[in-house]
Amino acid sequence: MYLKEDSAAILVIGGDKSRYPAPGALKRLTPAVDLRFLRSEEELLPSCRSRRPALLVVDLDGIGAPLGLVANVKAADLPVDPIIIIIGDEITPQQRTQAVELGVLEVIERPETLAELQIRLLAYLHLRDRLAKAEKAASERNQRLSEAMELLKAAQRKLLDQSQRAERGSSRSSSDVIANAAHELRTPLHAIIGFSELIRDEAHGPHKDPRYTEYAVDIHQAATHMLSIVDGTLNLARAEAGADPLDIRDIDIGRTVQESARMLRQLAEGTGISLDIKIPDVPLRIRTDPEKVRQIVLNLASNAIKFTPRGGRVTVEVAGLDDGGAVILVIRDTGIGIADHDLSTAMKPFGQVRQPDKLHPRGSGLGLPLTRRFVEMLGGVLDISSIPGKGTVVSVRLPPDAPGSVTPST
Q: Within 13 Å and on the Cβ side, how many CA atoms surround 161?
């Protein structure tokens, strides 16, 4: 690891002292720098352990096996891992290649002046300091991520405990248990997502190892997916418990559906799907909750888009019924479809139908159950008809007046 308090020590082995800045003069100019010359190769490892150098300079002048010295330093269990550079008057390509393979930072031709060499040495120390800060920041981020993961594990343990108590006859309903657990899971999940974004985006400096970024991306994707499951579970629990009140209004359902579908355009275009919206030429007015209608359209249409291969078509259609109600049709005519015996599974919470020979987008298995609950809250009926390999039609029939609505007197 890098230790900032030891970052100013420079050890030089080999070479002629007269070809380096004088230690005393350098210290007067830059007090934090301690430049020392080793008299023999036997001093190298003991000096590295005692002085913990930030920079080790191996001078090819007077060293019989410089690469062997570097290998010994790399193999030794030292308190710090110093930056190593090699300086020489004549350096062969083979020496450069072997040095890089051993982990030498740089192999340089000897600078013509002492002033230039001094600038180079101080630049390496500055680089060492930046590496120390980057490693410290990465360590802090990893610590925070570990703490967030511990919070998540604690929440999961609490969820298990609450579920077991509910099975033993707890008076609390299962919906309350799920809702409370979902609330507790949201906080650590948001923390995990936030910390993984900091690591992924290198917010506090670049990573030494590119795998940090890859791990952060994996963590971010997994936590985001888990958060979508938690949010869906919470919404379903609220709906089942009657804690999601309706806001009944007089609306033009065609316009509401059209406004909702605008949000789906980008998703459809990004996946190569044609999205058609068909609404009546004249306003079709019913009394219902416009926000629930938007959620129904978004859930069903986005689901259709996700399960339709590129080049397919999804149609959202609104048409009036004789009783004054409305029917919303979400048609996926070239999707992978669902077999009749799998429809009941698809309508259950967390129920996901998998076909071994098909690629399936990642989902929570809560979209259809939640949508059906919204439809029922509005007094409607949801029907699904599907043919595997051909597509699916989902119809939602809504009444002219949602339950609990009061028709304005004329």
A: 7
Pairwise CA distance, residues 390 & 302, whole Å? 18
Give CA separation, 3 vs 8, 51, 58, 71, 80, in Å: 10, 12, 21, 22, 7
Strand-pairing partners, residue 251, are 286
Radius of gyration, alpha carbons of the chain? 34
What's the count of helices (H) and strands (E) in the chain, helices before strands?
12, 12
- pLDDT at residue 70 greater than cutoff 50: yes
List Cβ neighbours of 342 (8 Å cut-off, separation of 6 or more): 353
* 120 band by pLDDT with thresholds 50, 70 and 90: confident
Over the range 66-100, which residues count as b (16 or more CB within 10 Å of their CB) and which as e? bbebbeebeeeeeebbbbbbbbbeebeeebbebbe
Least Cα distance to 141 among 73, 219, 71, 68 occurs for 219
Q: Is it the case that residue 176 has pLDDT exceeding 70?
A: no
Concatenated DSSP letters for 213-266? HHHHHHHHHHHHHHHHHHHHHHHHHHHHTT-S----EEEEHHHHHHHHHHTTHH
What angle do helix axes 367-377 and 290-306 make, rounded to 10 degrees?
Answer: 150
Q: pLDDT value at position 306?
A: 84
Q: 326: closest CA among 375, 398, 376?
A: 398
Q: Tell me how far apart the alpha carbons of residues 33 and 404 are, in angstroms, rounded to a whole number.
A: 80
Residue 173 confidence (pLDDT): 55
The residue length of the chain stands at: 410
- Of 53-67, 197-211, 262-276, 277-291, the range with the lowest mean pLDDT is 197-211
Q: Which residue has the higher pLDDT, 266 or 188?
A: 266
Sheet strands side by side (includes 34-38): 34-38, 9-13, 55-59, 83-88, 106-109
Residue written as token pair 């891992």: 81
Strand residue runs (E) in 123-244: none
What digits encode the pLDDT tens for the residues 9-56? Answer: 899 998 888 889 888 888 887 888 888 898 888 888 999 998 888 889
Q: Which amino acid is at 103?
A: G
Say how far apart CA 97 and CA 161 lie, in whole Å: 59
Q: Tell me the H-state helices in 43-92.
A: 44-51, 66-75
